[in-house]
Amino acid sequence: MRTHLAGAQSEKELAPLIGHRVSIRLHDGGGGYRDILGYLESSNSVKKKDGEIVEFDPKKIAALRVVIDAEFRAGAGAPLSMRIRDLEIAAAKTWPSDSLELFGQWQIRISKGFSYRANSVLPLGAPPFGDPPLEISEAVNYVVSKYLEHKLDPVFHVTLPIHQELDRYLSEKGWESPYEILVMVGDTRELTLKEAHGEIINDKQLSDSWLNLQGDHTVNEILERYPSQFLQLLINEETVSVGRLSIADGWGILTRIFVGEVHRNKGYGEEIISAMARAAENLECNKLALQVNSDNLAAIKLYEKMGFKVHHTYRYRKLLENKNVAECC
To answer: Where does the signal peptide begin and end (predicted)?
Structure first.
């Protein structure tokens, strides 16, 4: 369904919008415009908030926009802190760790292989520290001992701006930040999507061609542990871009978006993301989220071009190797 129309419209073009809330700008007789806001009742009438039915001439449409209710739009509705928490929970579900321990409102995630998302503590409670069950120094001590027990680096996934105090505390105790991540969101009804120039393959299981393009086989178990769709774009029977779509709590989480090195700057990234957005729509999911390193300027520019916006950020905090438990806390 198109959500933005310009110029005179036919009955066929307006039919899919009947029942939706719309804002219509009409050409007026004096060379100006008049606006109508309400629910489209037919191809030439709108029902306003007070119940009045207003008729209009579709040939006089200058512009029409579908109005999306805030609570159903990605990145809108509830207070920011609640939206961030809900989105972080949804994203975590789609990247399940080997083991998960609930420590107050902290999730202690431990897995084989290298993946900060599956090997880090995710605080989900209220500021300032995310509601661990112990005083902050004791809680961090416990976390450190758990990861060292598994011969893993202790890492925190610190969501900003909610847990700025926790981030400051860890920084002062010598926890380094390898990089920062932007969480970007978009609504499929508002994104600019591109048609694929090749064939889109959508599988429910990993394939060799999908894996070979993205190259990292260390997280295969994690990728298949949560129900997902693995999409790939083929040009002349060659896989040029791939991505993974997972649906959780009303969100379409896009991960593992890769474009083959020799195929970059040809629009194939935009095409695979567009295919993932349409696949989400087919599952009646309009809210999309993805994550990108803050220094990946080319990817950020692409996502912004398509209509994605930064929702929040998070930072990994890793305990320096030369720190012991007493020093870090």
So the answer is: none
pLDDT along the chain (329 residues), means of 10: 66 77 84 86 86 90 77 58 90 94 96 87 96 97 96 96 96 92 95 94 94 84 93 96 95 96 94 97 93 95 96 94 48
Q: Is residue 60 in some structural domain?
A: yes
DSSP 38-101: EEEEETTEEE-TTS-EEE--GGGEEEEEEPPPGGGSTT-SS-HHHHHHHHHHHHHHTS--SEEE
Using only C-alpha atoms, the chain has a radius of gyration, in whole angstroms, of 24
- For the chain, the domain total comes to 3
Tokens of 134: 């112990």
Are residues 205 and 155 located together in one domain of the fold? no
How many angstroms separate the CA atoms of 84 and 37, rounded? 31
For residue 10, give Cα distances in angstroms to 161, 189, 253: 47, 21, 36
Beta bridge partners of 35: 25
C-alpha torsion sign, points 312, 304, 287, 71: positive
The answer to whether the pTM exceeds 0.85 is no
Q: Which domain holds residue 29?
A: 4-67
